[in-house]
């Protein structure tokens, strides 16, 4: 099958959607699909493994590296390199995809415009929403989905978690299928890791708490620091927070003001191998954001064998059941209580860690994700009307 992925942002820019589109496209390529990518992201300074993207083509695309699909960069000159992008029509004519797989966040102008462009070309569309919509997003997209639903053939909507699917279903109102297909992860990378011995803690040893994610307001990093401060006033803990972003300066001020700099470390952004080293030295992982649509970092921590503490209504709840893979709380006081419980109850913590090491989140493995998307492509193709333009 010829699959064209469309995403506002892609490598060399790094983020959750960018990484997921890259890994999904490579997994499909390995499964003998004919895969390509269209993005509004320019190729400035490429990552080492992506340096072949820098070569030119009629669409400012790069030649694919081994195991990577070709990329068409439809960049429009915009201030701050905003990913508005140019028309997808030339790529549709050149690539002739059997299906267009659009990847959208809450605000993704290039991706959202790709949906009607593909449908006018009578190409089936699978639209994956990677974000968790709030009231503003629901209001903005209600009219858009209503217009699409009038000619619903050829369009299937997916979300990355049940939490992300719920507000979309409210907007769609049953007029379009909204399916849940989890983000994928290569669990084989964690096989050696999960058989490593559990880090042994001696009496009085500080519990090592880890969080990984972008330091942006929607990830609630300040609430994370308040949680750590509350728990750290009761039991000995130390924390490592991996990531970077606009909230970092404010976080550093908070740590200095409350005398936490000695036991809370901000590492900045680390590559995946370095993150794995941090997880190997940790006892518990905390995912603080209530509006987490999926939580790939939490999934990696779960695969590393760490008990995960997260919000009940977030996407993390799709692969973390409270008392089984971690502990969930509806509020930050409940999450603080959960962290205190794991600090005090080493048997519970070790039981959860052993379970996480011994089991895989099957819905998140690439074979399961590829099979689910193949079904979505077939469903969209079966409902595609004949071109009438």
UniProtKB/TrEMBL annotation:
Source taxon at top rank: Bacteria
Domain Glycosyltransferase subfamily 4-like N-terminal residue range list: 15-189
Gene Ontology terms for molecular function: hexosyltransferase activity
InterPro entries: Glyco_trans_1, Glyco_trans_4-like_N, Glycosyltransferase_grp1
Transmembrane residue ranges: none
Gene Ontology biological process terms from the UniProt entry: carbohydrate derivative biosynthetic process
Gene3D superfamilies the record matches: Glycogen Phosphorylase B
Domain Glycosyl transferase family stretches: 205-356
Keywords of the record: Glycosyltransferase, Transferase
PANTHER family: SULFOQUINOVOSYL TRANSFERASE SQD2
Protein name as catalogued: Glycosyltransferase family 4 protein
Organism: Actinomadura rudentiformis
């Amino acid at each position: 099958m010829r699959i064209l992925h469309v995403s506002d942002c892609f490598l060399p820019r790094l983020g959750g959607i960018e990484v997921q589109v890259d890994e999904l496209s490579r997994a499909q390529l390995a499964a003998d699909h004919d895969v390509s990518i269209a993005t509004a992201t320019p190729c400035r300074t490429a990552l080492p493994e992506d340096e072949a993207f820098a070569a030119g083509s009629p669409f400012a695309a790069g030649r694919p590296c081994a195991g990577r699909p070709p990329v068409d960069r439809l960049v429009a000159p915009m201030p701050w390199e905003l990913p508005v992008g140019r028309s997808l029509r030339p790529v549709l004519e050149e690539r002739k995809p059997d299906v267009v797989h659009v990847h959208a966040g809450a605000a993704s102008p290039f991706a959202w415009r790709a949906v009607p462009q593909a449908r006018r070309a009578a190409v089936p569309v699978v639209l994956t929403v990677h974000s968790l919509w709030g009231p503003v997003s629901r209001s903005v997209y209600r009219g858009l989905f209503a217009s699409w639903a009038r000619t619903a053939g050829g369009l299937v909507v997916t979300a990355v978690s049940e939490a992300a699917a719920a507000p979309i279903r409210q907007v769609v109102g049953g007029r379009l299928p909204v399916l849940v297909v989890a983000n994928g992860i290569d669990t084989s990378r964690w096989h050696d890791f999960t058989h490593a011995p559990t880090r042994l803690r001696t009496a009085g040893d500080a519990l090592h708490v880890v969080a990984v994610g972008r330091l942006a307001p929607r990830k609630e990093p300040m609430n994370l620091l308040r949680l750590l401060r509350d728990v750290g006033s009761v039991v000995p803990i130390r924390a490592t927070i991996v990531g970077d972003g606009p909230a970092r300066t404010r976080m550093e001020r908070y740590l200095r003001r409350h005398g936490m700099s000695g036991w809370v470390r901000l590492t900045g952004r680390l590559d995946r191998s370095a993150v794995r080293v941090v997880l190997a030295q940790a006892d518990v992982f905390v995912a603080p954001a209530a509006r987490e649509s999926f939580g790939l970092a939490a999934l990696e921590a779960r695969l590393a064998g760490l008990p995960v503490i997260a919000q009940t209504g977030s996407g993390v709840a799709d692969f973390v059941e409270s008392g089984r893979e971690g502990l969930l709380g509806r509020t930050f006081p409940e999450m603080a209580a959960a962290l205190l419980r794991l600090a005090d109850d080493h048997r519970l913590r070790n039981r959860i860690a052993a379970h996480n090491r011994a089991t895989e989140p099957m819905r998140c493995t690439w074979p399961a994700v590829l099979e689910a998307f193949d079904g979505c492509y077939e469903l969209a193709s079966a409902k595609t009307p004949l071109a009438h333009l």
